[in-house]
Design goal:
Elements: H1 2-9, E1 32-33, E2 43-46, H2 51-55, H3 59-76, E3 77-80, E4 83-86, E5 92-95, E6 102-110, E7 115-120, E8 123-129, E9 173-180, E10 183-188, E11 191-198, E12 221-226, E13 230-239, H4 242-251, E14 264-265, E15 275-276, E16 282-285, E17 288-291, E18 296-301, E19 308-315, E20 321-328, H5 334-337, E21 340-345, E22 381-389, E23 392-397, E24 400-406, E25 429-435, E26 440-448
Antiparallel strand pairs: 1-13, 2-5, 3-4, 4-13, 5-12, 6-9, 6-13, 7-8, 7-12, 9-10, 10-11, 14-26, 15-18, 16-17, 17-26, 18-25, 19-22, 19-26, 20-21, 20-25, 22-23, 23-24
């Protein structure tokens, strides 16, 4: 058993050998059990419903909703020999606990004709189904196999699994899922089937893609079942801390092998070589650039860029304020003289409660609002990736795209549009627009497009 666990939790792919014939009695190191092996403690029932709605209920109302679901759960779910068993009907088993970034391990065994899935943070789904031609769903992709993010838009990475990895009916299938923000990686029976793909929000599909809400930052694990019996066992989860999440996001998924192509460091971690502007207003501390308290101004890297991506880590003190200068000309206010300033802001602080939405973290200052709720606590490092291509800017924060807008289509600005004189710039410098607070930046890398 110890050898099986070690293989199961290795950071490499799962072994191709069949699943163990016996149950694991203890979680692998660093994991905890979602299922205790003999009861449904810690679970309740929900259907395909927007988790944001019920998570916003008052505590008493949420408790009533959970309690009311248990009659249906008891009618369709049972425990047999340490396995969760569903008869193919009823509500979906849903964890009381909510999760942000995590690694999930489980095994399932299903029957012909069944259709199931694993909802991540309450959002469908990692697909599980009958992948044989006799199952009758080849017309919607079943022949490609299980494990894909089936509710993603057609053609989007992750919708279809990379390989068919399902085992024959009667055998247990092993699943390993890593979720970082909205980025999902799935292994099925030791084979990579989804590679660091974005998972779209099923519950906001009718909204234009650039305005669509991302999936929640936290939510439950749900076991969706219909159409036939399915059994689950060895359900273990490990919450991923920010430092590990940032490292994994920086590495870019299994296929990148820890070295995303084309990125070059623009900060050496020790001094301001290659940087221009008022560098005396900043300092290098513990491998990070830090704006001195009460100081500011825009410093920028000397390489002029047109279309590019930048990746970096950001640490905000409580109430901290700074910005990323995009296509900065080398002088003037980055928000107006440059193409734009992307806000870097602890927008959880009470002093910012009344700001315009176009001033919160990740927003194009005064022009386009980013989605909120994906910034880590003050003092924790955030991983951010920005893509600038033509007039379109995409901001990904901690694995979730919080802004994706074409600035050329924006007609309403926080101030008169002529104030944003640089918004049509096609080239310039990347920089940091300090605003007197000790915000820190590290691991800065750029990739010209």
């Amino acid at each position: 058993m110890s050898t099986s666990i070690a293989l199961f939790t290795a950071l490499a792919l799962f072994p191709a050998a069949p699943a163990s014939e016996t149950l694991q009695t203890a979680p692998p190191e660093g994991f905890r059990a979602l299922f205790d092996g003999h009861s449904l403690a810690g679970w309740w029932g929900a259907t395909t419903e927007d988790p944001r709605v019920w998570m916003a209920l008052p505590p008493a109302a949420l408790q009533d909703k959970r309690r009311a679901s248990l009659e249906d759960i008891r009618a369709h779910w049972s425990v047999e020999d340490g396995e969760l068993v569903n008869d193919g009907q009823g509500l979906y088993l849903t964890t009381v606990a909510l999760f942000g970034d995590f690694e999930l391990l489980l095994e399932y065994r299903t029957v012909a004709g069944a259709d199931s899935g694993i909802y991540l943070r309450g959002v469908p789904q990692v697909q599980i189904w009958d992948t044989t031609e006799a199952g009758g769903k080849w017309n919607i992709g079943a022949g490609k196999g299980s494990g894909g993010l089936w509710n993603n838009d057609a053609g989007m990475p992750g919708k279809d699994p990379l390989v068919h990895a399902d085992r024959p009916f009667g055998e247990w299938n092993q699943v390993r899922i890593i979720m970082l923000g909205e980025r999902v990686t799935v292994w099925l029976n030791g084979q990579l089937v989804v590679d660091h793909a974005r998972m779209q929000n099923y519950f906001d599909r009718d909204t234009p893609a650039e305005l669509r809400l991302p999936i929640p930052a936290r939510g439950p694990i749900q076991l969706q079942t219909h159409g036939g019996e399915i059994r689950w066992r060895n359900l273990f989860i490990r919450e991923i801390a920010p430092e590990e999440a940032n490292r994994r996001l920086s590495e870019g998924g299994p296929s990148a092998k820890g070295k995303p192509r084309g990125f070059e460091p623009i900060f050496n971690g020790t001094d301001f070589s290659g940087w221009r502007g008022p560098t005396d207003n900043y300092e290098v501390r513990d491998g990070a650039i830090c704006c001195k308290p009460g100081q500011g101004g825009t410093i920028y890297h000397q390489r002029e860029l047109r279309d590019f991506e930048v990746a970096l880590e950001i640490q905000l003190p409580p109430g901290g304020n700074n910005g990323l200068a995009i296509r900065y000309p080398g002088e003037g206010d980055a928000a107006y003289a440059g193409m734009c300033e992307l806000q870097v802001l602890d927008n959880t602080h009470e002093k910012y409660a009344a700001l315009d939405p176009r001033q919160f973290h990740g927003s194009v200052y005064g022009q386009a609002a980013a989605h909120r709720g994906y910034l880590r606590k003050p003092g924790e490092w955030n991983f951010e990736r920005v893509r600038v291509e033509g007039s379109r800017i995409t901001v990904e924060l901690n694995g979730t795209v919080i802004l994706d807008r074409d600035l050329a289509t924006i007609t309403e600005h926080m101030y008169p549009s002529e104030k944003f004189a640089g918004r049509t710039r096609t080239a310039g410098y990347f920089g940091l627009a300090g605003h007197s607070d000790p915000v820190r930046f590290r691991a800065l890398r750029v990739r010209p497009l």
